[in-house]
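Final paragraph of the annual report: two paired records, presented back to back.
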Amino acid sequence: MSYTRHATDLPTTVAHLNHTAVYASDRRLSAEFLAAVLGLEVGAPFGPFLPVDLGNGVTLDYYEMTDEPIQSQHYAFLVPDEQFDGMIDRLEALGVTYYADPNHTRPGRVNDLFGGRGAYFDDPDGHNMEIMTRPYARP
C-alpha cells in the first residue's frame, strides 16, 4: 500500500500533536464532562472515537474501554486567563473538587505558578486533568 502526502499536509517547522486517544469506561460521559468544563463541544463519532476538539488543531479522541481498568493519565490544558474563573465555576456546579496541586492535597484552591493560575481535577475515570493560564517555565 502506498500513501502519498501533499506538501500542505506536512508540518512546516516541527512535529505537532494532532490527536491522542483517551481511554474511558464511558466515552460519551467523559467527553461531555471535559467539554462542559472547558466550554467546548463534543464532535461527531469517528469510528470508535468520540472527539473533543481543543481548537488548536488537537483532538482528544475518547475511546471506550470496558474490558480492563483505565490507567490514570495526566492531561494539561493551557486556557485563556479570562475563561479560567468560568471553568472553576463549572467544576463547582458539577460538584467536582479541584485542587491547587497535582497530588490533590489542597482542595478548593488554585495555584499561582509562573504568574498565572492553575487547578487540577479528576475526570470520571480518574484522569488527572489540569487547567492553567501560563505555560510552565522550562529550563
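The closing record of the year follows.
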Amino acid sequence: MIEIYHNPRCGKSRACLAFVEGSKQDYKIIPYLTETPSFEDLKSLLTKINLQPLQLIRTKEKIWIENYKEQSLTDDEVIQAMVDNPILIERPIVIKDGKAIIGRDLDLVASFLD
C-alpha cells in the first residue's frame, strides 16, 4: 500500500497524486494539514525518508521565517514545529514498503514505485 502525504492546494502534490493514481497500485491519501501527524509519526517518517528534520521543512514558509528561522533548534524542536504547523512539512511525500521520498520529481516517483 502506497501512502501519500498530500496537500490538495499544492500543484506538485496534485501532480504526484495523479501519477500515483495512474500507477494502478493501492494507495492511501494522508491529508496531513487536517490530520496532523504526531511527533512519533514524523520521527518514523524521517527514518523512512532518511533525512534530518530540517531537510523536511519548507523554509520559505512565512511561519518558518517569522517564528523559527533565526533560532538554533534541536531536531526534536524542528519536529515539534512541524507538528504544531504542518504547513511546514515538505510535500508531497510518498511512502512504500517502509521507505519514503519527497515526490516533487515525477521521474523519481516512477522509479520509486517500480
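The radius of gyration is 14 Å. This concludes the annual technical report; the extension proposal builds directly on these records.
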